[in-house]
Design a protein that fits this description.
Radius of gyration of chain B: 24 Å
CATH class of the largest domain in chain A: Alpha Beta
Helix content of chain B: over 70%
Strand content of chain B: under 5%
Number of domains of chain A: 2
Structural class of chain A: alpha+beta
Structural class of chain B: mainly alpha
Oligomer: heterodimer
Shape of chain A: globular
Number of helices of chain A: 18
Strand content of chain A: 15-25%
Number of helices of chain B: 22
Distance between the termini of chain A: 74 Å
Helix content of chain A: 25-40%
CATH topology of the largest domain in chain A: Rossmann fold
Strand order of the largest sheet of chain A: 10-9-8-15-16-17
Number of strands of chain A: 17
Largest interface: A-B, 27 and 24 residues
Largest sheet of chain A: 6 strands, antiparallel
Largest sheet of chain B: none
């Protein structure tokens, strides 16, 4: 064959292979499940600057639900990262650590061991195996992690990630294309929301012992040996949750093993009072603290870490800027979390303007100063001006909406009032990093009225015709954190 | 391990790599080895033994006629082959016939005896029996007729009857044609054209099967499995969709088989040629499962026509009906046709639903259309219908589709009785509203999934359109060849888009359990 033809053919085949490979990789990226039960934790981990993580927290969901690196950073300048996976087995923890040590040399490795407590089988369900391992790079550790935690006959389901991910084409959303977690700024923390009230668990004081499975024990020892040989201090901990007696018995065995091997360990279930946990408010459900609880726990843990380990204060070091971003982000999350609990219009705008509303628990009160640049307000005044209380009018004026007219539409952001119209039919776009927001109205012929909406690709919110409505969009989180209707008395109701 | 499994393609990649490194005269041996390896890991030991026994009998036979020893041995071998095929593959109908004969005497073979016997037979029946036995019978007969010389090397005979891409699903090759490609000592060099064209064809086949056919199967299964609850248009819809499902399934499988063989540089005969462009049922069958039709024509229909029985019949017809009777009622030919069609139906599995739906029904329609041809011609003449226009061609194509679909619907029914009952139900209720009230989205495909099917069918139509256009032009080009003539950017885009649609939309992986190929089990 002619040499030129051969070269041309070779180039063609190379290009074709590259194109198919590109499609394959792209499909894998887009279709990969984006969840914060392990997958995002590992993906973001790879973005961290080399050797910047001083405290690495590994384990099951307790690791990323209970330890908030933002607090460790704000209060102590500790650079921490939550590298956990939901329902994580001890064996997966081992491979997590192996993989993690490729890029970081933590000054202390915190291992939450509560995984051993309620498991009789050494394998985990498919969804959890996926959550734990699909964020890892496709390498030996990932395959070993899968192999160590699923039954042999199901192994083939995990070899080609697409074979269990491709059906996600029905649920692709914005985060599959512009993923806010897939970044250096994410430090793994993902608190549980909600509040449930519990009795203080008596089982926490149990001194019973129950054996671990051989599998759990083997990998616990592997972790101990690995960290010893790498010279990384291991800190074994049981973070607070409501356990049964049997579970505590297994945890006691782990703590025994730790002590036998001269590993520092703490059972935080024996320290409820010291931490200051309130069993009426601090738990999301039986096995997890909520945001408030985790804030208290992290503050307590931070104190221990600061005192017992040689951890530098990195605040102000530009290499660690991403922890500042994580802290900002965390405050934002707290605000979004607390905003729904505001019930009076003045507080609502106060929070927006000065961040000085009396919300958010102790940590937030000390830290939260809302940055108006982070928010956009979409306001529509009620059809009848008389429905607006003096407080409402004052509050509107405080954000720059002076002399509001009935049915007026306003957009306010960090710069002040940026848009104002009185015309019934209107349409105004506002572009943010994550969304193109449309503030608009349309005629509803059936009901003979005009409906007004604020919408993005993901959601659409109708505004009230009678009362004054305010919608707050958080630019950093890419969500509407609150939509309210202000009644004539200045009381707030949900839109 | 089927043609859709990852393992197969990994093994195939190894086979391919070594294949092109070997000198020409070893290439066929390597294909033999690879084929035997794949066949063994897909078979149980007893199945392999049966396979070997069949090969030994046929090889010994073929050697014998080479020595000039005659028709007696040929007949013995053929009868043994047919006997084995019937016993191993079509035993269910044997048991049924036996029970039918016993019934007047108040006796019957107990159900559990039949089931036991059948499970034993199944465990020794070689994989792909219906296909390779036909190839083997064709081979033996060709040797006997002197169409080709007997292969002196038994391994060559194994390879030609069980070349791995077509082992489980055809096409049913004509050994005298494929022999030249498989066994010439000239080295088959790696060619990027074969690789890319073969790959494109494999991808297209996978798309047809896993994106279109598997989705259509959801609707078809819903209706067929509960047909008492779905009457009227539902049934007609299910029957029509099943025709398309079967087409995308079987022709998709053929695309994969031919694509694989293309990558190896060995052309195989086409099994489908845009069947839905056919304007009569006879033409349809010349475009659908072509190699089965060709085989039966060569080894059943023609020999029958030359047989003593038929020439006797011809004489009697001449006596009774007079000279030139064949222009009006060619009864001897109809008898041959009927027997051939009966066998086509029977080949599908021996059940009456196949014998009727894919066999006798099709044969009778073809015979009737031949008989009534003059009448139709008259009608067209009197009503001055223009048959040389698009609308008339469209009419004949739709007519052919409907006629085929009616017979084909029995294929999917669980029995012939169910098939008839379904058609009764189809006409027992007139429910056109299901086309408008969204009820069709409750049959297993929601709007989005239905949209994917529609997109797939549009692509299928576009490909078929170009394929058919080339057929009319007689260029010998396929739709794939047309794509390959385009600029590289376009080609890369076609590959990428097809690949992307497959990896995202195909029914594979742990949550979808793709059905076996419909024609893979015969």
């Amino acid at each position: 064959m002619d040499k030129h033809v051969r070269i041309r053919n070779a180039i063609y085949i190379i290009l074709l292979s590259a194109a198919l490979l590109f499609v394959y990789i792209l499909a894998n990226r887009v279709l990969l499940l984006k969840n914060i039960d392990g997958i995002d934790q590992f993906r973001a981990y790879y973005h961290q600057e080399k050797n910047t993580v001083d405290v690495l927290v590994v384990g099951n969901s307790h690791s990323y639900c209970h330890v908030n690196p933002a607090i460790l950073w704000e209060d102590y300048g500790i650079s921490a990262y939550d590298l956990g996976g939901g329902e994580q087995t001890m064996s997966i923890s081992y491979y997590y650590i192996k993989e993690a040590l490729k890029t970081q040399r933590p000054k202390v490795l915190c291992l939450d061991v509560s995984t051993v407590s309620d498991r009789n089988s050494d394998t985990i369900a498919r969804q959890w195996a996926i959550n734990n391992t699909f964020g890892m790079k496709y390498n030996r550790n990932r395959i070993d992690a899968i192999r160590s935690s699923v039954s042999e006959d199901t192994l083939k389901d995990y070899i080609l990630p697409l074979s269990s991910m491709h059906e996600r084409y029905t649920e692709l959303g914005m985060t599959d294309f512009t993923d806010i977690h897939d970044s250096i700024d994410f430090k793994g923390y993902r608190p549980k929301e909600g509040i449930q009230s519990f009795e203080v668990p008596a089982a926490a004081m149990s001194e019973e012992r129950l054996p671990l499975t051989a599998h759990q024990e083997k990998y616990l020892m592997d972790i101990i040996n690995l960290t010893k040989s790498e010279g990384i201090p291991l800190y074994i901990m049981v973070t607070p949750y409501i356990m049964e007696e049997e579970e505590q018995a297994r945890l006691n065995t782990v703590l025994d093993i730790a002590k036998e091997n001269n590993i520092t360990c703490t059972d935080f279930n024996k320290l409820y009072d010291e931490i200051g946990l309130d069993f009426n408010t601090d738990f999301a459900e039986k096995s997890h603290l909520n945001r408030v609880g985790s804030t208290k726990f992290t503050a307590y843990l931070g104190n221990i870490l600061k005192n017992d380990y040689d951890l530098a204060d990195h605040r102000g070091d530009p290499l660690y800027d991403s922890w500042n971003a994580a802290a900002d982000r965390s405050r934002q999350d707290y605000a979004a979390f607390y905003m729904p609990s505001i019930s009076y219009v003045k507080d609502f705008f106060d929070l927006f303007l000065n961040g000085k509303a009396d919300v958010g628990g102790d940590w937030l009160k000390g830290h939260f100063t809302a940055n108006p640049d982070d928010y956009i307000l979409f306001v529509m005044t009620g059809a009848d001006r008389s429905l607006m209380s003096p407080d409402t009018i004052d509050s509107l004026a405080s954000v720059g909406i002076s002399d509001p007219v009935p049915g007026g539409k306003y957009i306010v952001d960090g710069r002040g009032l940026v848009y104002r119209t009185d015309s019934p039919i209107f349409s105004k776009g506002y572009r943010t990093k994550l969304h193109d927001i449309l503030f608009y109205s349309r005629e509803n012929k059936e009901e003979n009225r005009i409906d007004t909406f604020v919408r993005t690709d993901d959601e659409e919110h109708p505004l009230s015709e009678q009362d004054t409505s305010v919608l707050i969009y958080d630019k950093a989180l890419g969500v509407f954190v609150r939509g309210i209707r202000i009644d004539p008395a200045g009381q707030i109701e949900e839109l | 391990m089927g043609l859709l499994s990852l393992q197969f393609y990994l093994i195939f990649a190894i086979i391919l790599l070594v294949y092109y490194l070997l000198p020409g005269k070893f290439q066929w041996m390597w294909l033999f080895a690879g084929g035997i390896f794949l066949y063994s890991i897909n078979s149980r030991p007893y199945q392999l033994i049966t396979f070997v026994v069949i090969i030994i009998i046929n090889f010994a036979g073929s050697m014998a006629f080479e020595d000039g020893k005659s028709a007696g041995i040929y007949k013995a071998v053929i009868i043994t082959d047919i006997f084995m095929l019937v016993i191993l593959k079509y035993n269910s109908s044997l048991f049924r016939v036996a029970n039918m004969c016993l019934r007047p005497f108040g006796a019957a073979i107990p159900e559990d005896v039949i089931n036991n016997a059948r499970s034993i037979i199944d465990s020794i029946c070689p994989v792909g029996m219906s296909y390779f036995m036909l190839i083997l019978i064709g081979y033996i007969t060709s040797v006997h007729w002197g169409k080709m010389g007997a292969l002196k090397n038994p391994l060559k005979m194994v390879l030609i009857t069980s070349y791995f891409p077509l082992m489980t699903s055809g096409p049913i090759i004509e050994c005298s044609e494929t022999e030249g490609y498989l066994f010439n000592d000239e080295k088959k060099h790696f060619s990027s054209e074969n690789l890319t064209k073969g790959l494109l064809r494999i991808l297209w086949g996978v798309f047809k099967k896993l994106v279109i056919s598997e989705r259509l199967a959801l609707i078809v299964n819903t209706i067929y499995d509960n047909y008492e609850a779905y009457t009227g248009l539902y049934i007609m819809l299910a029957a029509a969709l099943f025709t398309i499902q079967l087409y995308t399934d079987f022709s998709g499988l053929m695309d994969i088989v031919l694509g694989i063989s293309r990558v190896l540089g060995i052309p195989l005969p086409e099994n489908f040629k845009t069947p839905f462009y056919a304007s009569t049922l006879a033409e349809f069958w010349r475009r659908w499962h072509i190699t089965l039709g060709t085989w039966l024509r060569n080894y059943v229909f023609y020999p029958l026509q030359r047989s003593k029985m038929i020439s006797k019949l011809r004489k009697s017809c001449k006596k009774v009906l007079g000279r030139g009777y064949e222009k009006k009622y060619n009864i001897p030919m109809y008898v041959c046709l009927f027997i051939t069609w009966f066998l086509i139906g029977f080949w599908h599995g021996g059940d009456f639903k196949y014998i009727f739906g894919v066999g006798i029904y099709m044969g009778v329609i073809i015979i009737l259309s031949d008989i009534l041809q003059p009448v139709f011609g008259k009608i067209i003449q009197i009503t001055r219908i223009n048959t040389e226009c698009f609308s008339y061609r469209l009419f004949t194509r739709i007519r052919t589709f409907i006629i085929f679909t009616i017979g084909n619907s029995f294929f999917r029914a669980s029995s012939a009785g169910d098939g008839f009952r379904m058609w009764y139900l189809a006409f027992s209720r007139f429910n056109p509203w299901i086309l408008f009230n969204g009820a069709l989205y409750n049959l297993g495909l929601d709007r989005r999934e239905a949209g994917i099917v529609v997109l797939g069918l549009i692509l299928l139509f576009i490909v078929s359109y170009f394929q058919h256009r080339e057929e009319i032009r007689g260029s010998g080009q396929s739709a794939g060849d047309l794509i390959m003539r385009q600029n590289i950017l376009f080609r890369l885009m076609v590959f990428s888009a097809l690949f992307a649609m497959i990896i995202v939309w195909a029914h594979y992986g742990s949550t979808f359990n793709a059905q076996d190929f419909i024609y893979g089990g015969f």
